[in-house]
Specification:
Number of helices: 9
Radius of gyration: 18 Å
CATH superfamily: Vaccinia Virus protein VP39
Shape: globular
Helix content: 25-40%
CATH class: Alpha Beta
Distance between the termini: 43 Å
Number of strands: 10
């Protein structure tokens, strides 16, 4: 058992205009149910009664948790690796475009097994990468020969230490949400870029699957972002959203997992159709995509 964290105010904007939204199941590890609440002020959602940072570790202990294990077991995970090999290059190009630099000082928070950090090192960026999970750090050393640091070092960086900070599907896992945003502001110079990729609960696939939507991923996902909530949170901490970028592949990946959770087996045709519908709705508005990359600039 653990001591749950219960929020009476919104963890993002501190409003007391919060209410129950839905209940989601942890399909990956515990099979336990967790309530998700909604903030009527900033529109963020958050998982209620989650384990604290010192107690949540067991909920990540699964051979199927790909960002830590790097597993290629099963079709969905094989597909994940194929897509990742493509997206690593697109992320690097996105950083070069929005930072205006071909090299610089980059901090990658929540590096997983280190694939992105290794890519940026090869492209000449001075890359520092942080990862709390010991097995993921070991995999990064084995696979890429890079040393990932514990996230605690984040609190000791000097002002203006980095040109770019990246969090690829990480911010939704961070217990110290406000503290991290203060650090982002502290260690970036004015004009420095912050790239945050998170699932979008206002997407078409999220609407279709409801509480079964795999990207709720309770209790590992502590927060569930909308574009409006990200812009609100950024503004509170001295950042402006200057661009958004859709993550087109995520709708298919999340739909496949959602189908698996819903039916006990992946219905690939149905998953493809739901992912495609979600993406078609997002063509004219990237903020409707299953996952969104927010490019933020320090004011």
């Amino acid at each position: 058992m653990f001591t749950p964290i219960h929020h009476y105010h919104c963890p993002a904007c501190n409003s007391d205009k919060v209410e129950y939204a839905l209940t989601a199941k942890d399909h990956t590890v515990s099979k336990d149910n967790f309530d998700i609440w909604h903030c009527n002020q900033c529109s963020i959602r958050f998982t209620q009664d989650v384990p604290g940072i010192d107690q949540i570790g067991p909920y990540y202990q699964s051979a199927n948790y790909i960002s830590h294990s790097n597993t290629k077991k099963g079709f969905i995970n094989q597909l994940y690796h194929l897509v990742r090999n493509y997206t690593l290059g697109s992320k690097a190009r996105l950083i070069n475009k929005h930072s205006g630099k071909s090299t610089g000082r980059l901090l990658d928070i929540g590096a997983g097994v280190g694939a992105f950090a290794a890519t940026m090192k090869l492209k000449g960026w001075h890359t520092t990468a942080l990862e709390p999970d010991a097995s993921a750090r070991a995999e990064a050393k084995k696979e890429y020969g890079i040393d990932l640091l514990m996230p605690d070092i984040l609190y000791s960086f000097e002002p203006h230490s980095f040109d770019v900070i990246t969090l690829w599907h990480v911010l939704e896992h961070v217990h110290d949400l406000q503290g991290y945003w203060k650090i982002f502001n502290h260690i970036l110079p004015v004009g420095g870029k912050l790239l945050i990729a998170v699932p979008n609960y206002t997407s078409g696939d999220a609407e279709h699957y409801g509480s079964i939507w795999a990207a709720y991923d309770v209790p590992r996902h502590l927060y569930h972002f909308s574009p409006a909530s990200m812009a609100h949170l950024a503004g509170m901490h001295g950042f402006t959203v200057v661009a958004t970028q859709p993550m087109w592949f995520d709708s298919f990946y999340v739909s496949m997992l959602s189908e698996q959770y819903q039916h006990g087996a992946t219905r690939y045709l149905s998953a493809f159709w739901q992912g495609l519908k979600s993406n078609l709705a997002a063509i004219s508005n990237p903020n409707k995509c299953s996952s969104v990359i927010y490019i933020l600039q320090k004011n």
